[in-house]
């Protein structure tokens, strides 16, 4: 600008100079106005924490006249991941090239219609990791939804926008999908409830597949009663079921993977159930030793696994089988489209896709055999009243744009593989904070026991939060997470000694 003024002073009588000056000043004004508008647009976008891909309203079905009962979800709002079909809208799968090359849906997904029929209003589609790959929630094309609790950290994925919409109180609940943790991880990172139902328990008609043997429709809520009400609708559960006793089973070895002190997880849960009726004394188990003995098909996957701390090799083998199964089915589902379209993908998603497409899968039957044996093993362990207690994820949310390390991914998948490969139902429950990061723990029970698990969360939640408050105000206890001897001393002799195979 100063050069322009000097030019005017020197050549004040030259009309061409005044034209150049005018153009320069106008250009500066245009640039400034463009920047202002972009900044305003970003502010408007971030008013919804960047959670939404598309805003619209799907009006719920009308309430039937009396004496009909009140619709169970009347007055509630929800959002859906950009993986669910909505009539008249193109399903984007988190990627603009997918959206560009596919027609608008001619029907709405069965699960969305069920929610509308029961009184809930849908208010839009949410951002997701491309093609439902990834656990950070970052999207190269549409931006990363802002974690309301930790804006500088990732929200978790792939159902990132749905989790953020709930955590930011933009909706009462939201739908996501969970393949290898896509509901459980964002629920944990955003400090809300996240439910992954038993595999196949909720219809996937009208939902794009990533890996159909692992995919499950899940949902988020802040309130356990809303989580429960949505579950009753989607799972078509009976309103009343006879009350059963409950037996918590702590996977001591898996808590050694977590960076959160046991005082804020195991201790909180143990104290919470002391005050509740119908809960037997907790049991303790070395879960990796159990699955090593009861899932014999895992032996073929040990050679592909890397070493995790504390010798969790059996769980890493399970994780390796899970990732191989996901990649095999993803390749089967989408290889043709990927080769035809050559879509633009973010770097981490691109690596996952290339690994899936370029691999050859010679022993596919063993992947499905592990899954079958894992389901039988968890049923044997938990019987009719058992609930396995594990950390949802081992590490706190990563910083934005840092990318996930191999270690982070391996530690996450090791824990997430339990429910994904067994098909069991799992719920992630927030337990306050540690070092400024959200804490969560997960309850897992056998395939088909979804109502039992939802009832348990509703029953325990208030007592859990009371204990969380007390733990946050108490002096810290010695951290025994890494002390195997202390863990052994905690165990009750309820399971016979288990011998691991030579590996």
Automatic annotation (TrEMBL):
<dbReference type="InterPro" id="IPR023631">
    <property type="entry name" value="Amidase_dom"/>
</dbReference>
<keyword id="KW-1133">Transmembrane helix</keyword>
<feature type="domain" description="Amidase">
    <location>
        <begin position="69"/>
        <end position="454"/>
    </location>
</feature>
<dbReference type="Pfam" id="PF01425">
    <property type="entry name" value="Amidase"/>
</dbReference>
<keyword id="KW-0472">Membrane</keyword>
<dbReference type="InterPro" id="IPR036928">
    <property type="entry name" value="AS_sf"/>
</dbReference>
<protein>
    <recommendedName>
        <fullName>Amidase domain-containing protein</fullName>
    </recommendedName>
</protein>
<keyword id="KW-0812">Transmembrane</keyword>
<feature type="transmembrane region" description="Helical">
    <location>
        <begin position="15"/>
        <end position="32"/>
    </location>
</feature>
């Amino acid at each position: 600008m100063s050069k322009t003024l000097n030019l005017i002073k020197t050549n004040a009588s030259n009309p061409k100079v005044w034209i150049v000056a005018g153009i320069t000043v106008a250009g500066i004004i245009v640039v400034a106005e463009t920047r202002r508008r972009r900044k305003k647009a970003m502010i408007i976008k971030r008013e919804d924490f960047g959670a939404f891909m598309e805003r619209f309203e799907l009006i719920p079905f009308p309430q039937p006249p009396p004496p009909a009962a009140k619709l169970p979800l009347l007055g509630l709002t929800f959002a859906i991941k950009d993986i669910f079909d909505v009539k008249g809208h193109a399903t984007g799968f988190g990627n603009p090239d997918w959206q560009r090359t596919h027609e608008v849906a001619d029907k709405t997904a069965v699960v969305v219609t069920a929610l509308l029929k029961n009184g809930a209003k849908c208010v839009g589609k949410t951002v997701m990791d491309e093609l439902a790959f990834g656990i950070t929630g970052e999207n190269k094309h549409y931006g990363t939804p802002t974690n309301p609790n930790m804006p500088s950290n990732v929200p978790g994925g792939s159902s990132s926008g749905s989790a953020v919409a709930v955590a930011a109180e933009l909706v009462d609940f939201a739908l996501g999908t969970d393949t290898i943790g896509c509901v459980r991880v964002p629920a944990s990172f955003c400090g809300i409830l996240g439910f992954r139902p038993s595999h196949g328990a909720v219809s996937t008609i009208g939902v794009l597949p990533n890996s159909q043997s692992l995919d499950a429709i899940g949902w988020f809520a802040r309130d356990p009663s809303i989580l429960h009400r949505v579950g009753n609708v989607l799972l078509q559960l009976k309103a009343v079921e006879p009350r059963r006793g409950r037996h918590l089973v702590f996977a001591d070895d898996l808590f050694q993977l977590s960076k959160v002190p046991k005082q804020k997880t195991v201790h909180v849960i143990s104290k919470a159930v002391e005050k509740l009726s119908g809960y037997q004394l907790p049991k303790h188990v070395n879960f990796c030793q159990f699955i090593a003995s009861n899932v014999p098909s895992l032996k073929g996957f040990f050679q592909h696994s890397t070493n995790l701390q504390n010798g969790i090799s059996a769980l890493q083998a399970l994780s390796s089988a899970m990732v191989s199964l996901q990649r095999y089915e993803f390749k089967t589902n989408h290889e043709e489209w990927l080769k035809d379209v050559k879509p633009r993908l973010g770097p981490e998603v691109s690596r996952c896709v290339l690994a899936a497409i370029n691999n050859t899968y010679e022993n596919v039957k063993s992947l499905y055999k592990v899954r079958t044996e894992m389901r039988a093993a968890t049923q044997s362990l938990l019987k009719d009243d058992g609930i396995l207690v594990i950390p949802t994820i081992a590490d706190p949310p990563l910083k934005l744009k840092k990318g996930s390390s191999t270690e982070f991914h391996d530690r996450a998948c090791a824990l997430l593989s339990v429910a994904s490969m067994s098909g069991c139902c799992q719920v992630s429950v927030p337990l306050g904070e540690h070092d400024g990061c959200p804490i969560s723990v997960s309850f897992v029970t056998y395939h088909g026991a979804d109502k039992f698990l939802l009832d348990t969360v509703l029953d325990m939640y208030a007592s859990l939060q009371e204990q969380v408050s007390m733990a946050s105000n108490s002096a810290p206890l010695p951290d025994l997470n890494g002390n195997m001897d202390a863990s052994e001393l905690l165990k009750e002799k309820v399971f016979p000694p288990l011998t691991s195979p030579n590996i």
